[in-house]
Design a protein that fits this description.
This protein is α+β, with helices and mostly antiparallel strands and 466 residues long. Strands 6-11-10-9-8-7 form a six-stranded antiparallel β-sheet, with no helix packed on it. A five-stranded mixed β-sheet has the order 1-5-3-4-2. A hairpin with a 6-residue loop joins β3 and β4. α8 runs parallel beside α9 and α17 crosses α20.
């Protein structure tokens, strides 16, 4: 019997668990699967059975689970989410998106694979980090960590820019046995998270954050590992968080700043020493200090505040000013759309081949789409049109549809993405296990989530990193 007709018996609870664990609603699944909502509901209630073709698509492209999972008699047990340290009030926090949920799942799988591959090679964890408590002085803990990482001020000041700084800090952290992964997630949900469980703790950084933001997140999450407290963070510390969470976030923020900008190094810097305690610090000085330490201006000013060289009022004003500038820059970027449409045109935004009507809309706006152009729905507010090497993004702003051209569309670099997401230590471990003939080529492609044709370039890049 053809797969499109062959039905598969699946425990309804497994289907519900698979959908909810990836953060999707029944309508969202129905649209991605190109099936009716009623069909999905009947599968989940046990009134109907999915066909093999539908189940394979659910497993592979929507729920991203091994097919065998759907043959289990009940949902498997999984570790709970890390603690939610986001700064929004609990009643305003939205559930994590599927991208963030998949990032957490991916990071945990990489942790598990690291342990499994290390055992196959008779390797033990090289973890060399200590522990800290909230009663410890973050300045003292930071000095100890810097010494352990082996990064002195001369080395730090000699790095060419923030990108070099991030790479070098990351390598130093990996050398003490911590896994570092960079995975893209919605920045409004999290800047990073940490996973303390198992032999190989991990720091996961949001690839969409700024370089300075990622540098700070490295050590904020390092602080969580020292406290043995996994968390999903956005680095804010508003008044409405619980006292316990505020204490944890305050410690991690203080610790991160103290590692990146040590007390004596800042106070003895000629620009700081000459100015003493100012009520207001000129932007030129903050910029120069930030450039020296390879951090943001806000990290510098926060350190000056903690070290009693700046006032709380000035810090708050600058914090608000920088926040407004960031919002304006984002707003300006959002305004650079090619053209806009009324919301009624949402009816044309259906997954698959673009319609004649949609292609005509582009023509009317002095653009063109070929008959090969495909449209993909990313979520309820965003779509992507891929037409050869051109990629267009469509955003629903609640008042209109904005159409943007994605710069650099179609020119992703899979080998570099592989290294960002998996980290050099994990990739090296996978390659070594393969050379020892303990895993197959197919395993390598699966573990690294990359096509085998890109593997030689990955190996070449890794040789330059380890």
């Amino acid at each position: 019997m053809p797969r499109k007709y062959l039905e598969v018996t699946v425990e309804p609870r497994v289907l519900i668990w698979a959908r909810e664990s990836v953060g999707l609603s029944i309508p969202e699944v129905a649209k991605r699967l190109k099936a009716s909502e009623d069909t999905i509901r009947k599968w989940e209630s046990g009134q109907k059975r999915p066909t093999l073709m539908y189940l394979e698509k659910l497993a592979r492209t929507i729920y991203k689970r091994p097919f065998a999972v759907f043959l289990l008699p009940k949902p498997p047990e999984e570790l709970p989410f890390p603690n939610d340290f986001r700064s929004l009030p609990p009643d305003k926090r939205k559930p994590f998106s599927s991208k963030t949920r998949l990032a957490i799942r991916r990071a945990r799988r990489l942790q598990s694979l690291t342990a499994e591959l290390a055992r196959s090679l008779n390797r033990e964890s090289t973890l060399k980090i200590g522990r800290a408590t909230l009663s410890d002085d973050p300045e003292v803990v930071a000095n100890s960590v810097r010494e352990q990482l082996g990064v002195d001020l001369q080395t730090q000041f000699g790095w060419t820019d923030e990108n070099k700084a991030f790479n070098e800090w990351g390598k130093a952290i990996e050398k003490v046995g911590i896994l570092v992964f960079q995975i893209g997630m919605p920045l409004e949900e999290t800047r990073g998270f940490s996973l303390t469980e198992g032999e190989f703790p991990a720091i996961v950084i949001n690839l969409h954050d700024s370089t300075n933001g990622r540098i700070f997140s490295l050590f904020h999450e390092y602080g969580h590992l020292l406290l043995n407290n996994s968390g999903i963070c956005d680095m804010e510390n508003p008044a409405y968080l619980s006292e316990e969470v505020k204490s944890i976030e305050k410690f991690c923020n203080h610790f991160a700043g103290a590692v990146l900008v040590p007390r004596n190094a800042l106070l003895n810097h000629e620009l700081t020493r000459l100015k003493g305690r100012l009520s207001e610090w000129p932007d030129e000085i903050l910029k120069e200090l930030a450039k020296t330490f390879k951090v943001s201006q806000e990290v510098i000013l926060r350190r000056l505040l903690i070290l009693e060289r700046a006032t709380e009022g000035f810090y708050k004003r600058k914090h608000e000013e920088w926040g407004m500038k960031a919002k304006e820059a984002k707003k300006e970027q959002r305004q650079k759309f090619l053209f806009s449409l009324e919301l009624g045109y949402r009816l044309l935004l259906k997954d698959g081949a673009t319609s004649n009507a949609l292609r005509e809309v582009f023509v009317n706006n002095d653009l063109s789409l070929t008959s090969e152009a495909k449209i993909t729905k990313k979520d309820d507010k965003h779509w992507k049109i891929k037409d050869g090497n051109k990629i267009y993004k469509i955003e629903d702003t609640d008042t209109q549809l904005n159409i943007y051209e994605q710069k650099g569309g179609g020119r992703q670099n899979p080998p570099k993405k592989c290294i960002w997401e998996n980290g050099a230590p994990f990739i090296s471990l996978v390659l070594e296990t393969f050379r020892e003939e303990k895993i197959t080529y197919r395993d390598v492609a699966d573990y690294l989530a990359i096509r085998l044709k890109h593997l030689p370039k990955v190996e070449q890049l890794i040789r330059g990193k380890v």
